[in-house]
Specification:
Residues 1-36 are annotated as: Disordered. This is ELMO/CED-12 family-domain-containing protein. It comes from Suillus subaureus. The structure is a single chain. By secondary structure, this protein is an alpha+beta fold. Helix content is 48%, strand content 9%. A hairpin with a 5-residue loop joins strand 6 and strand 7 (383-384). Helix 3 (108-121) packs across helix 4 (127-137). The protein is elongated, with a radius of gyration of 32 Å.
C-alpha cells in the first residue's frame, strides 16, 4: 500500500491509498483506479484501491501503516459506512466489487470492552447509545465472542433486571439477538427468566419492551435439551436426557412454564395480546404460543392445554383469521392450526381411565349429575347406569376406546352448553321403549369419529391443510351442532335401534355439506345446515351420493387403513421435498414488495440454494448467470441458518424487469406485482433473509413445503400441489390395498381381526413415484 507522496509499505504493489484533494495540493496520479472510499475515525475520507486477494487483517494493517496510525492495527476494523456491517474475509470481495464506502473503526475487541464498561458505569450520556450499538453489533459473531469474554452477559442481564422504558427495550433486543447464537448464554438463571416473564406481563410495559421479551421466552422454550445438536447425556433411568455442560440447550418448556406459573396471569397476557393493534406484537405472541404448544412435556401437558382452552386461545386465533390485513401472520396461524391438530390427535389417542385419571372421573361425574338420572339394575341384576345415557355397556374404557379423551371432552362440552336441555333429552329418551331410544352417548362418540375423519386427525406430525380452518378450531361447537342434528334425524325419521348406522350415514353426509368452503363460509350458515335442514332433503341428497360412490370407505377397518396410509403418504412426501432441498436449485432474486419489510440486496439476478446434510443451513451463491454447480458446498460461499427463519411467506416479491420471461412460467408482470411463484424467508426482527422466485409451480411447491416441513415448529404445507400429492397417494394406496377385498364386491364386515402381516409389505409408493 502506498501514498501519493511516494512513501511505501509492504503490499504497495497491490493496494493504494489516495489522500483527499485540497486547494493547495492535488494527488499525484497512481495509474490505478480506486475501488473504495475509507473514512477514518477522525472523519477524513481517503480513496483506496484494495486487492481482493488480501485478508481483512492485511488491509487494515496496510491502512494503518499508510495513515501513520501509531496504535496497533489489531485495535481497528473495517465497517460498511452505510450499513455498519463488519467487514470480514467472507464479504470483503463483495464490498470491493460493489465499491462500498468503508470506515475504519475500533475492532470488535475494543468496541466490546468499551460497551461492557459503559454498561457497568451507566453514565447517562453514553449508556443508551452503548445499548443501541450493542443490539446491532451483537449479531456479529466476532463481536459477540468478545462481548461474552469481557463478562458482558451478566452486565446485560443486570441492566434488564433494573432498567425500564426505551433503555430496557434496547437491552432486551440485544439479549434476543445474542440468543441467536447457540452458545454463550447458558448461565441465564431462573431469576432472569422470571424477570422477563414479569416484564412481559406488566400492564405498564411499552409495546417495544414486550416484543423482545416475548421473543426471548420463545428462544428459551426452544432451547430444549431434546433439540440440542449432537449426543445427549443420560441423567438417570427415569429422568430425560440432558445437554452437555455449557450448552444453551438446558432450558425448554418446563423451566419457562414454571416461571410463568409464578407470575399470575402471564399466559393470559400473551393470549390477550393476540388482539393487539400492533402486528409485530401479535406475531411474537403467536410464535411464543406455538413454541409452547410444540415443546410442552407430558408432565405439564394437561395443565397447559386446559389453561389455553380456558383462555379461549382458539377464539382469538379465529378472529385473526378474519383479519385480512395481517398477511404476515398466515404462516404462524397455520402453524397454530397444525399444533391443534396434534393436540386433538393426542386427546383422541389418550384412553379414558376414570379409575386412574381424576380429570376423567370428574368429567364423567359432571355428565352423570347433569343427566338427573338415577342408576339401578337391569332385569339380569346387572348395574344399569351409563347405558341409560346411551352407552352400549358399563365399561367406559371400552366405550371411549376409539375416540379417547377427545370424545369425553366433546360429550362434557355438549352437556355444559345446556345442562337442562341435556337432562330433558335423556329423560325423554328413557320414557320411550328401549328399541326406540336414541343412544345419545354413542351418537356423540360417532360424531367425534366423523369430524376426525373429515379433518384428517389421523397423524400426529402433519397437517395437510393449506388454508384456514376456523370450524376445526371450533371443534367442540361443531360437535354439539352435529350431535343435535343426529338426535333430530333420529326423531324425525322414527328410527329404532337397528337404524343407528343409517343415521350415522346421514350425519356423515351432512358434515361434508355443512363444513365445505370452510375458509370462506360464515358461521351462521354452518348453524343453519345442522339445525334447520329437513330429514327428507338430507335423505334424498344422501341417496344421490350413494349412487355416485360405494360406501365401502365408511367401514371402520377401511377408515383405520386410510389413517395408516395417510401417515405414510405424508412422511413420504416430506422426504421427497427435503431431497429436493439437498439437490439444490436456481432461483431468480426477487424484488421485495414494500409490505415485505427489509431485505438483503443480492449480488446478481440468479441464486443457487442447497440444504446441507446437517439440515442446519441453506448454502447459496449469487450470480449474474446460471452455471453448473458442483456437488457439495464448495461453490456456495454464503449461508442462511434454518433456525433463524420464523416464516416462509409466499407471494411476497416481484421479478426484476430485466429478467427474461422465458425463464418463468408466468404472464408479463406489472410494476412490482408479487409473483405467485415467489417466497421469502423471514425473521421476526430482521425482515427477509432471502426473496426468491421459482421457475415453475413444481419447484415452488417443493421448496416452500420442504422448508416448512423442515422447520422445527411448523407442521403445515403451503401448496395445494403437496396437499394433493398426499391425498392422491393415500387414495391410490387405499385402492391397491382394497383390491383383494372389493374385487368381487364382498361386503366388508364391521370389524376385522388383524393377522400377521404378509411377506410382501414393501411400501407401494416406491413403485408409483
Amino acid at each position: 500500500m502506498s501514498t501519493t507522496n511516494g512513501s511505501s509499505a509492504p503490499g504497495a504493489s497491490r493496494t493504494t491509498l489516495a489522500p483527499p484533494a485540497t486547494n493547495s495540493m492535488r494527488p499525484k496520479s497512481t495509474g490505478l483506479i480506486p475501488t473504495n472510499n475509507v473514512t477514518t475515525k477522525e472523519g477524513v475520507t481517503v480513496r483506496t484501491r484494495i486487492d481482493p486477494t488480501l485478508t481483512v487483517d492485511d488491509v487494515v494493517r496496510q491502512l494503518c501503516v499508510n495513515l501513520k496510525v501509531t496504535e496497533p492495527s489489531s485495535n481497528f476494523a473495517l465497517r460498511d459506512k452505510d450499513t455498519d456491517e463488519l467487514i470480514v474475509n467472507e464479504n470483503l470481495r463483495k464490498k470491493i466489487k460493489n465499491k462500498a464506502n468503508l470506515k475504519l473503526v475500533n475492532s470488535p475487541n475494543i468496541e466490546a470492552a468499551e460497551i461492557v464498561q459503559k454498561l457497568l458505569v451507566r453514565d447517562e450520556r453514553t449508556f443508551k447509545m452503548a445499548l443501541w450499538s450493542l443490539k446491532k453489533f451483537i449479531k456479529e459473531e466476532k463481536f459477540a465472542q468478545e462481548f461474552l469474554s469481557h463478562g458482558g452477559l451478566s452486565e446485560l442481564a443486570q441492566v434488564i433486571c433494573t432498567e425500564h422504558g426505551n433503555t430496557l427495550a434496547y437491552a432486551l433486543e440485544a439479549m434476543h439477538n445474542l440468543m441467536d447464537l447457540d452458545y454463550g448464554w447458558s448461565t441465564l438463571d431462573n431469576t432472569f427468566i422470571f424477570k422477563v416473564v414479569q416484564i412481559l406481563s406488566s400492564p405498564n410495559s411499552l409495546i417495544n419492551v414486550c416484543r423482545p421479551a416475548t421473543a426471548i421466552l420463545k428462544k428459551l422454550v426452544e432451547a430444549d435439551p431434546m433439540n440440542a445438536p449432537g449426543p445427549l447425556i443420560a441423567s438417570s433411568s427415569r429422568a430425560p436426557p440432558v445437554a452437555p455442560p455449557g450448552s444453551v440447550y438446558r432450558y425448554g418448556f418446563q423451566i419457562v412454564f414454571q416461571q410463568m406459573r409464578r407470575e399470575k396471569g402471564s399466559l393470559e397476557t400473551v393470549v390477550n395480546r393476540l388482539g393487539s393493534a400492533d402486528t409485530a406484537m401479535i406475531l411474537h405472541s403467536m410464535m411464543l404460543i406455538n413454541s409452547l404448544l410444540s415443546h410442552v412435556n407430558d408432565t405439564e401437558w394437561d395443565e397447559f392445554i386446559s389453561e389455553l382452552e380456558r383462555l379461549n386461545v382458539r377464539k382469538a386465533v379465529i378472529r385473526l383469521m378474519s383479519s385480512h390485513n395481517i398477511d404476515d401472520l398466515t404462516s404462524s396461524i397455520l402453524d397454530f392450526q397444525a399444533n391443534i391438530v396434534r393436540v386433538t390427535y393426542r386427546k383422541k389417542s389418550t384412553l379414558v381411565e376414570p379409575e386412574v385419571e381424576p380429570l376423567h372421573e370428574s368429567a364423567l361425574e359432571y355428565i352423570w349429575n347433569c343427566s338427573k338420572v338415577q342408576d339401578g339394575r337391569d332385569n339380569d341384576g346387572e348395574v344399569l347406569k351409563w347405558r341409560k345415557l346411551g352407552f352400549s355397556s358399563e365399561n367406559l374404557v371400552h366405550e371411549f376406546q376409539e375416540v379417547g379423551e377427545l370424545g369425553l371432552d366433546c360429550l362434557r362440552n355438549f352437556v355444559a352448553d345446556d345442562p337442562d336441555l341435556f337432562s330433558k333429552v335423556i329423560l325423554e329418551q328413557l320414557s320411550r321403549p328401549v328399541d326406540r331410544r336414541c343412544p345419545i352417548a354413542r351418537a356423540s362418540n360417532e360424531i367425534v369419529e366423523l369430524l376426525a375423519e373429515h379433518w384428517v386427525i389421523f397423524a400426529p406430525a402433519y397437517s395437510t391443510s393449506t388454508t384456514y380452518q376456523p370450524f376445526f378450531l371450533n371443534f367442540y361447537r361443531v360437535h354439539a351442532l352435529a350431535t343435535q342434528f343426529f338426535l333430530r334425524m333420529w326423531n324425525e325419521s322414527g328410527s329404532a335401534a337397528g337404524d343407528f348406522s343409517r343415521i350415522v350415514a346421514l350425519a356423515r353426509s351432512q358434515v361434508k355439506v355443512a363444513l365445505q368452503r370452510e375458509n370462506t363460509k360464515p358461521w351462521h350458515e354452518v348453524e343453519h345446515d345442522f339445525l334447520d335442514c329437513e330429514y327428507r332433503a338430507v335423505r334424498d341428497r344422501q341417496m344421490q351420493e350413494l349412487e355416485a360412490e360405494d360406501d365401502l370407505l365408511s367401514k371402520v377397518p377401511v377408515r383405520n387403513l386410510k389413517e395408516k396410509i395417510t401417515r405414510e403418504s405424508a412422511e413420504f412426501v416430506r422426504q421427497q421435498r427435503i431431497q429436493c432441498l439437498f439437490q439444490g436449485a436456481w432461483f431468480i432474486n426477487g424484488i421485495p414488495t414494500p409490505a415485505n419489510g427489509l431485505s438483503r440486496r443480492p449480488n446478481g439476478q440468479w441464486r443457487f440454494i442447497r440444504l446441507d446434510n446437517g439440515l442446519k443451513y441453506l448454502h447459496y451463491v449469487d450470480s449474474t448467470v446460471q452455471f453448473p454447480v458442483r456437488n457439495g458446498l464448495e461453490d456456495l460461499p454464503e449461508r442462511i441458518e434454518i433456525a433463524a427463519i420464523t416464516q416462509i411467506a409466499t407471494g411476497t416479491c416481484a421479478s426484476p424487469p430485466n429478467i427474461l420471461r422465458d425463464h418463468l412460467d408466468l404472464p408479463p408482470p406489472n410494476s412490482l406485482t408479487p409473483s405467485p411463484l415467489s417466497f421469502s424467508l423471514l425473521t421476526a426482527t430482521e425482515g427477509s433473509l432471502a426473496d426468491q422466485i421459482a421457475s415453475d409451480q413444481s419447484r415452488w411447491a417443493d421448496w416452500t413445503d420442504g422448508l416448512n416441513m423442515l422447520r422445527r415448529d411448523s407442521g403445515h404445507v403451503t401448496s395445494e400441489e403437496t396437499a394433493g400429492y398426499i391425498k392422491a397417494l393415500t387414495e391410490i394406496g387405499l385402492k391397491i390395498k382394497l383390491l383383494d377385498l372389493s374385487g368381487e364386491k364382498v361386503d366388508i364386515p364391521s370389524g376385522l381381526v388383524a393377522g400377521p402381516p404378509p411377506s410382501n409389505t414393501d411400501f407401494f409408493f416406491s413403485d408409483l413415484i
